[in-house]
Write a structure and sequence with these properties.
This is PH domain-containing protein. This protein is of the alpha+beta class. It contains four helices and seven strands. It folds into two domains: 76 residues, Roll (PH-domain like); 55 residues, no CATH class.
Length: 167
Amino acid sequence: MQGHPDQGLRWTEPRAVTRLKARAMTLRQRLGLLAILTVVSAVWLVCEILPSSLFGWEALAAIALVIGWLWAYPVMWLNRNIHNMVSLTPDAILGPLGNHNYLFIAWGYVGTVEIDGKPFQVMVYKVHHLDEVLYGIGEEVDANAVAAFLKRKGVREPDGGTAPPRV
């Protein structure tokens, strides 16, 4: 769905781009997700089971690791298969990777990435203190309108031209 250019733009990220980004998840990112889910499981186990449990902390830690592992795979599957909504609002870029105010974006551009021989339009930008963020641009939105919107918001192109996105 494309909005009025001055009010912002909104689209659904193409599934091929979402799957490509999920495949590109590094081992460090996967282990980080597992660690977070394990800690959440451990806190729940300690709060709910430990006071009335006969288990030692070692058994609860092992159970928390297994629960974290069981959570991690469905979360990664969902990350690969759910359609992500991306919005360019007057104040920020809103997407599954966070809300980023234009003031904190170092640079950004619209480019093309090829997936299985088919070209997809993408928006790539860098938040000052984070890695590059890549979102596929849905077919319902004109990529030129996205580029023009970013330019109107003061997002500059990267130094040295536009390199192809790292995926």
